[in-house]
Design goal:
Helix 1 packs antiparallel against helix 2 and helix 2 runs antiparallel to helix 3. The two termini are about 25 Å apart. By secondary structure, the chain is α/β, with parallel strands linked by helices. The chain contains nine helices and nine strands. It has one domain. It has a five-stranded mixed sheet.
Length: about 250
């Protein structure tokens, strides 16, 4: 958010920046409380649970985490308000990844917050750590939450800012396999697609991507791994640092 960036440029104090972000989060909550009907209550409930959903192994939107035994249709008005307000963005599951991904959307989706700085503040809003400790832990790679959540949210934010639609893939090696492999994002390139895998560290291990590239070899034109290292190539895989995602 511009106010938070301005505050950091003025003070170089992350605690002061966090105060600004907390005010923004409270303004969001206040806006949701003013929505008529049940949409506002549902939107606020979803908003508060986004960090919990994204920090899980499978990051799908899980209505039961918010309200026991509920279904996606129950929270549909809240999701619609959050996406229309550009507070959140849906990343839709595609069941048959190709250049016509919009035609293959499955019902499951992931819900990203379109400001990763606010996501970080929301994730630590319970006050377990002080703000200086949080940012110190983040820069040292010692966060107590899944750093992949933050990297993946940054990638989603950059892709949407560049006008890209968000789609992801889930697959199994065998039909009855309990292990689900996920490709974080799928992008079109001409008549083919590019799978994008997001890693929060420097890593050359990407089993899900390898499986996807083998399964859909005829459909893809290379692959991208977003990581915390420098740009490099390895065969058909391009490795890029997180800040280059908007250039894809």
């Amino acid at each position: 958010m511009p106010q938070a960036v301005s505050k950091y440029a003025e003070t170089h104090d992350m605690a002061a920046v966090e105060t600004v972000k907390k005010v923004i989060l409270d303004l969001y909550r206040d806006d949701m409380s003013k929505i008529g009907g049940s949409a506002g209550t549902k939107a606020k409930a979803i908003f508060e649970e986004i960090p919990s959903m994204l920090s899980g192994h499978r990051k799908n939107f899980r209505p039961g985490l918010i309200r026991k035994n509920s279904r996606q249709t129950y929270f549909a008005p809240g999701v619609e308000w959050l996406t229309s307000a550009r507070i959140c963005e849906k990343c839709r599951l595609t069941t048959d990844p190709d250049i016509s991904s919009n035609l293959n959307n499955g019902e499951p989706f992931k819900c990203y917050l379109l400001d990763t700085g606010l996501l970080m503040s929301l994730a630590f809003d319970n006050g377990v750590l002080s703000i200086p400790e949080v940012y110190s832990a983040f820069t040292r790679g010692k966060l107590s939450i899944n750093e992949g959540m933050l990297f993946e949210n940054v990638a989603a934010q950059l892709l949407r800012s560049a006008g890209k639609e968000l789609h992801y893939v889930e697959m199994r090696v065998k039909e009855n396999d309990r292990n689900v492999h996920e490709i974080d994002f799928i992008l079109p390139k001409g008549k083919k697609i590019i799978p994008v895998e997001v890693k929060s560290s420097v890593s050359t291990r990407h089993r899900s991507l390898d499986i996807f590239m083998q399964k859909y070899a005829r459909r893809i034109d290379g692959a991208v791994v977003v990581h915390s290292g420098n740009m490099k190539t390895d065969g058909k895989i391009l490795y890029i640092p997180i800040y280059m995602v908007s250039l894809l």
